[in-house]
Specification:
It is built from 15 helices and 2 strands. The chain has 291 residues and is mainly alpha-helical. Strands 1-2 form a two-stranded antiparallel sheet. 36% of the residues are buried. Helix content is 53%, strand content 1%. The protein has helices at 7-17, 30-39, 45-58, 62-66, 70-77, 84-99, 108-112, 119-130, 139-150, 161-169, 175-191, 210-213, 233-245, 253-257, 263-275; strands at 280-281, 287-288. The longest helix has 17 residues, at 175-191.
């Protein structure tokens, strides 16, 4: 099947241990997979599941979303975080509807040309929706490969060319198997080879893992700082957006002023939301979601 020394064990493990997620089921179409991949960026599955279901119920096709103002996508995004992703999905829906006949393109290069679709998302959709052979490198995959092949606890903070070359070298030659390998190694990183508490006793490739065989040497790179939220501009932005999402109409400025005491930080966060296209300042001094 491949010179990949891990594929047989990882694929067998996946058959038994994979989570039953709706975007992985045979009936999942390319649009539902694209939505899931964008929602899953920096957001855990447990939070994405209800949001994905609500989104797909309201907008089962790109054309359904494209007919709505972009502000409705921001409203439906609710509290998933990083709401610019909602704008990107809306822009994708418009492009897919207007330029691709309402169908998510199956060509990797065309996927890359969609608004907000980067190398990971294009490879994931091409693989998971269309069964193609592409190296898929999310945080989980990068961590598994760093440990198994490179013998280090964590991959570099920024993805490197060497990681891409390694991932491509491990791809099984048959496209459908390569696509299955991509999701399987991703699941292994999410469930077993986790960042903080890897369950090496449950890992199907533990006996081959360079990091485990080396005695699990501690990470030697720059300090890994966990992201904070409390007190940050991100928290302020979230509170401002919550006011707009909860209102069917534009809101006056004083409705936004009450969400945060620090005037300077609040105004900075509001300016950033306007700059990002997530909030529209109206001529009458009120504020609204875009569109």
């Amino acid at each position: 099947m491949s010179d990949n020394p891990y594929s047989t064990a990882v694929l067998a493990w996946y058959e038994t241990n994979a989570r039953d997620l709706p975007w992985r089921r045979p009936e999942a179409d390319a649009w539902s997979i694209l939505v899931s991949e964008i929602m899953l960026q920096q957001t855990p599955v447990v939070r994405v599941l209800p949001a994905w279901r609500a989104w797909m119920e309201r907008w089962p096709t790109p054309a359904d979303l494209a007919r709505e103002p972009s502000g409705e996508a921001v409203r439906m995004w609710n509290r998933l975080g990083y709401p610019r992703r909602a704008l990107r999905l809306h822009a994708c829906a418009v492009t897919i509807t207007e330029e691709h006949g309402g169908r998510v393109p199956d060509d990797h290069a065309t996927l890359l040309s969609l608004p907000g679709v980067g190398s990971y998302t294009a490879a994931a959709v091409a693989s998971f929706a269309f069964g193609q052979r592409h190296a898929i490198l999310d945080t989980n995959v990068r961590r598994v490969l760093a440990r198994a092949e490179t013998g280090v606890q964590y991959p570099p903070k920024t993805q490197t060319k060497a990681e891409t070359v390694l991932a491509e070298s491990l791809l099984p030659p048959t496209p459908s198997v390569a696509a299955r390998w991509g999701v399987a190694v991703m699941e292994l990183g999410a469930l077993v080879c986790t960042a903080r508490a890897p369950a090496c006793a449950e890992c199907p490739i533990a006996r081959q893992c360079a990091w485990r065989l080396a005695g699990k040497p501690a990470y030697q790179g720059p300090p890994r700082r966990s992201q904070t939220y409390e007190g940050t501009d991100r928290q302020v932005r979230g509170r401002l957006l919550a006011v707009l999402r909860d209102s069917a109409h534009p809101v006056p400025k004083d409705a936004l002023d009450v969400v945060w005491d620090d005037h300077v930080q609040r105004e900075r966060a509001l300016d950033a939301l306007v700059s990002d296209g997530l909030v529209d300042p109206l001529d009458d001094g009120r504020y609204a979601l875009p569109g």
